[in-house]
Amino acid sequence: MLELKGVSKRYAGGELALNNVSFNVAAGEVVALIGPSGAGKSTLIRCINQLVQPTDGQVLLNDSRLELLKGRQLRMARRQIGMIFQNYALVERLSVMENVLSGRLAYVGFWQSLLRRYPAADIKYATQLLDRVGLSEMLDKRSDALSGGQKQRVGIARALMQRPALLLVDEPTASLDPKSSRQIMRLLCELCREQNLAAIINIHDVALAQQFVSRVIGLQQGAVVFDGKPEALSEQVLTDIYGLEDWQEPADD
Ligand SMILES: Nc1ncnc2c1ncn2[C@@H]1O[C@H](COP(=O)(O)OP(=O)(O)OP(=O)(O)O)[C@@H](O)[C@H]1O
Description:
Blueprint: E1 2-10, E2 16-25, E3 30-34, H1 41-48, E4 56-61, E5 64-65, H2 71-78, E6 81-84, H3 96-101, H4 110-114, H5 120-132, H6 148-161, E7 166-170, H7 178-195, E8 198-202, H8 206-212, E9 215-220, E10 223-228, H9 235-242
Parallel strand pairs: 3-8, 3-9, 6-7, 7-8
Antiparallel strand pairs: 1-2, 1-4, 4-5, 9-10
Helix pairs in contact: 5-6, 6-7
The structure holds adenosine-5'-triphosphate (ATP).
Pfam family, one: ABC_tran
Domain ABC transporter: 2-246
GO cellular component, one term: plasma membrane
């Protein structure tokens, strides 16, 4: 499904932010990406969706070489990648339903999207998704009236509206309390199973990741230093990844 082959990234004038990263993610597989600040987690996510062009290596999504695509072809390929963000990235003054429908923007034409005219099938699917994420009572609420956990549910429904093959999830729980964090991680993992979706979740909270995902990739200084089951993350491995940082405490940022 997703395959990274020897992906490296050097920003202008900087050190290697990614160093020869290779791994595969299968359909339906949920991977937590962990590592200390500056390890290259965000760079890796951005190299997958091509917001950052890798300096070296290949990024294959369903056998298509994303790093070679430009313009329209890249936009088409990106439809297969749903993004979920720490700060939700909702349009606050729009309703829950409108935010979810905006997940179809890459599919509907320019005028349709400007006038926010979506096909009936899209509205039906958005309604189903909002029901699935537990927000069926809130379709017409303004997004700025929601709690953090509810906003993240809208963000998840919007990403799924794209009918993606892969979800890239950047710190989905960093702005949430512990209970909402667990609910969001559980929901994400259930949805990936139900829809046979692959996901890479960039997450600081190791204990939370261990509780829900089936595979963890640990980055340190741009290189993969661990790739395995969460049970295999021993104290020694975590110390290798995080150095002397206290990896048991979720990061503040
Ligand atoms: N646009 C950029 N230009 C130059 N250097 C960058 C840029 N973005 C990131 N870097 C550098 O690349 C390295 C990896 O950064 P990255 O943001 O990918 O790490 P991260 O693991 O996501 O960190 P955090 O957990 O703090 O978000 C760091 O040394 C960072 O300073």
